[in-house]
Amino acid sequence: MNRLLKWILIAGGTFVVILMAAIILIPLLVDVNHYKPQIEAQVEKATGRPLKIGGDIDLSVFPWIGVALSDLQLGNPPGFKESSFLALGRFEAQVRLLPLLSREVEVKRIVVDGAALALVKKKNGAVNWEFPTAEKTPKENTPPKEKPSPGTDGALPALTAEEIAIRNGRLTYVDETSGQKQEVADLNLVLQDVSLDRPLQIQFSTRFNGQPITMAGTVGPLGNPPASQPLGFDLALSALEELNLKIKGSARDVQTAPAVDLQVDVSAFSPRRLFERLGRPFPLQTTDPKALQAVAFSAKLNGGPQAIRLDAGQMTLDQSRIDFKAEAAELDKPRISVNAKIDTIDVDRYMPAEAQQADKKQAPAAKPTPPDAGDKPQDVDYSPLRRLVLDARLDVGQLKINQARLAQIVLKIKGRNGRFELEPFSANLYGGKARIEGRLDVTRSQPRSNLSLQLTDMLIGPLLKDVAQKEFLEGRLVTAIDLQFSGDRPETIRKTLNGKGRLTFNDGAIVGIDLAGMVRNFQAAFGAGERLTEKPKTDFTELDIPFELTNGVFQTAASNMKSPLLRLLANGKADLVNETLNFRINPKFVATLVGQGDTESRSGIMVPVLVSGSFAEPQFKPDLKSIARQQVEEKIVESEEFKRVFEENEELKPYEEEAKKLIKGFFD
Q1: 107 near 83, Cβ under 8 Å?
Q2: Does residue 500 contact residue 482 with C-beta atoms inside 8 Å?
Q3: Could you give the 3-state DSSP secondary structure of residue 383?
Q4: Nearest by Cα to 609 from 655, 651, 559
Q5: H helix intervals, 30-119
Q6: Bridge-partner residues for 591, per DSSP?
Q7: Cβ distance 424 to 435 under 8 Å?
Q8: Number of neighbours of residue 586 by Cβ within 10 angstroms
């Protein structure tokens, strides 16, 4: 037994000596660089690109298995003028040998230094990052893989690394089709003191087109096997000396059902300065060139591919603050719930700027050309809205939009299966209150809409001055309107606009027309005599306009205006499609015009006014034909002399009514 043990020890010792000698002597005796041509040839055969290893290949076996090489260049495929697709200054990797026997990985360092990758897209669309794919060979029948036994499921007992780093990297992208060039330079990524059971320290920095980007923080622990436990994040990103972003939280079930629970904070930054640092024009031309100078964002984000939720959301947009929360589930539909509050916002600041508007006004109008068949607007695809399930609410303290100012807005929208309802929308509007209800149906190719509007005690003058920059009506408006229309383009909506309603203005005035003056001084009122020095105005105590809308034509048959001195009846129509006017106004003075420059007593004087022309240039003129008829009826037909002629001549009496009709008929 002792003799056998002795021989075993001798044999084992001899094996160890031979192994140690091989580990020490092989790197000394074998010149790996002798095989560089074979390595380069095999790489070129596999990639179709030339490989050049300019420096020596260094190998080590004990106590570290290591390899180091330098000055490596992988060329481009034929047709590209750039000499290298990938250039590598130095690569070094070292792993301790003995721990590998127990499946423990101890990395001393893995360092890539001076790597440069050049991506090119030629004018003909060819790119240099596509490699030939290996031809597939028929699969042979292979036995099924055995399930790993306990303890051999791929987990590593330990993984540590002193340093994993990329230093002095560079990535260049050249697009010859657009002439653009993008460059990521001075790329450095350092991972130190790496372990599976503690957070990973990350230091990253680079320059994008000359602008600095840095990231620092921790990720992990990674777990063993990796992603077997929640993965923590605590990262801070700084970009272009303008944008600062922090992410803190965790990700779980990364391989099976990924989900995140994160806090995201973006410090206040200027999107405009961000694009300036990138050397690019700002993509949005806003009405206010100072808009989008300060934006900040923060929110809690949790969920995964099937459902995601935003809580405690807060956004700063210049002088506006927005608080919000949102939830999205069944993302293939999706089902969305949103609740947002805005303290104050001027939407007009962010609307597209009307460039060269002054030039457009001065330029002569071009003759309309028939539309080309290829210019036909594309139909809107409403299928996403038909799948959408929406429940949204928006509260706004103060809002300015299209120059109109609203306050205390509450907007609620719910919908599903292509049908959406605007629940009672309310807002304070120019001293009054607005209430709107509506429905939108997109189940067909063309959307259909219903809208109900109620306004109470709204000051119409300031509204028209802000929105239309015109002053033609004053007073407090009370209205109730019901509308129905279809389509998604303005011209289609106008053509299909139907409904009815009533506009009632109290204690106001029609600015720009003096009906009393038209009666008192025809020549001055209608442009043939001395002009009035003051801006004309017709005051009223009430202006009531009941109306109907039929396929875009506004029509009223019994509009009336009341004042202490004046009664006005109007009828006619306004064509919203062609933007034309056709109204007849019949004012009647029922007392003296004292206070309006007239001391005579006038009763029952009818002075009709015709309104025609377009919305942009309305025209007012007296209905001379009606005035003449009125005067003939009063001075002749209804006069005592006319009656006396038929009373004194009995043979003419049967012809009295015929005579009246004949005289009146001259004006028909």
Answers
A1: no
A2: yes
A3: helix
A4: 559
A5: 36-47
A6: none
A7: yes
A8: 16
Q: Is 616 exposed, middle or buried (0-12, 13-18, 19+ CB in 10 A)?
A: exposed
DSSP track, 316-348: EETTEEEEEEEEEESTTS-EEEEEEEEEEEEGG
If DSSP codes are grouped into helix, strand and coil, which group holds residue 516? helix
Cα within 13 Å of Cα(415), Cβ side: 24
Please provide residue 462's backbone torsions phi and psi, each rounded to the nearest 5 degrees: -60, -35
Instruction: Locate the domains of the chain by residue range.
Output: 21-129+158-195, 390-624, 625-668
User: pTM value?
Assistant: 0.72
Residue 29 neighbours by CB distance under 10 Å = 8
Give the integer Cα–Cα distance in Å for 422 and 499.
Answer: 18
Strands 158-175 and 200-208: unpaired
CA–CA separation, 200 and 192 (whole Å): 8
- Residue 48's nearest CA partner among 126, 122, 118, 134 is 134
* C-alpha to C-alpha distance for 290 and 288, rounded to whole angstroms: 5
Q: pLDDT means per 10 residues in the chain (668 residues)?
A: 51 47 52 79 86 84 78 88 87 75 74 92 88 60 53 58 89 90 92 83 92 92 75 92 94 84 95 89 90 95 91 95 95 91 95 57 45 62 92 96 92 94 92 94 93 93 87 90 93 93 91 64 50 69 93 92 79 92 79 46 61 86 65 59 62 60 54
Secondary structure, 3-state, 273-296? HHHHHHCCCCCCCECCCCCCCCEE
Report the candidate in 198, 209, 205 with the shortest Cα–Cα distance to residue 174: 209
The structure tokens listed for 355 are: 């460039």
